[in-house]
User: Fold this.
Amino acid sequence: MKRTVKDIANLLNAQVLGDEQFEITGVSSFEDAITHELAFAVDPKFLNNMDQTKAGALVVPDSFAMDDPNAVIPVLLKTNNPKLDFFRVVSLFHPDKKREAFTSSKASIGENFNAGKNVTIEANVFIGSNVTLGNNVYIMPNVFIGDDSLLGDNTVIKPNVTIMERTMIGKDVIVHSGTVIGSDGFGFARASDTHEKLIHTGFVKIGDQVEIGACNTIDRGTLGMTLIEKGTKTDNQVHIAHNVKIGENSLVVAQVGIAGSSTIGKNVILAGKAGISGHITIGDSAIVGPYAGVHSDVPANEIVSGIPHLPHKKWLKVVNTISRLPQMRKKLQLLEKKINDLENKK
Assistant:
């Protein structure tokens, strides 16, 4: 497939600096692109080092201006959102594969199954009773879907996903491989010298346009609902415990763990490996830094970091102090010795 820069510029409504008839044959990263491939540059470390890419053309911010107008640079396509626009071109060169609607003879489907139009169910899928699938749903091999579950239109379930009974999944959802939705939470009660299991009768509800990463574990509610609202995205290896509520358009990055009955607001970012204690609330648009240990409520719009969590700027001061502690300890020991010597002279 070949496209001229002019064709791509028309698609993106981009301003072109350079040869509009230059042919693009593929897409790649800034570092790996070769002649006649398109890449993008947003960060200054790329924009200031264009001589380090072999790309034939770059998508860049429309505010970008070259310091040296005589520098040899690739063809530039200037847009308002270079990263998003670049991936529109990626989809042009790598369109989704067309699939046919069919149900594999190796799939097992229970009673009262209801499927919409253009549904694909591949080999070794198990679907329980009273399950409903919307239009254009795609179930890949080795998926388990429990009784009384509902999957909305255009949802894609990738291989080896487990969806336990009574799970509700909205429209335009993607669930990546290895994820388990609706497993029992970590619920036990102490009885003498044993831990007795508590029966979990709740369920999981996932809103429209949610994307769940690979190998997530999302527990059903103990009695009620575990909820992930519209537009939220989770990375790989995320754990969401029983009765957690996550608001719209939040981001949960890899290896985050959220303990039971916590509430995460809208547009929240939980950075990698953050740990969220149970029964707390994180307000709308808050940001929790990587490795943070959140033990109490976080107000809306707050940025927190550290273990235990602190306001981010305060945590930076703490970190800076920690690195100086050995030196400070020596000074304190010297001061202590001087004070003792003065007292002994009295």
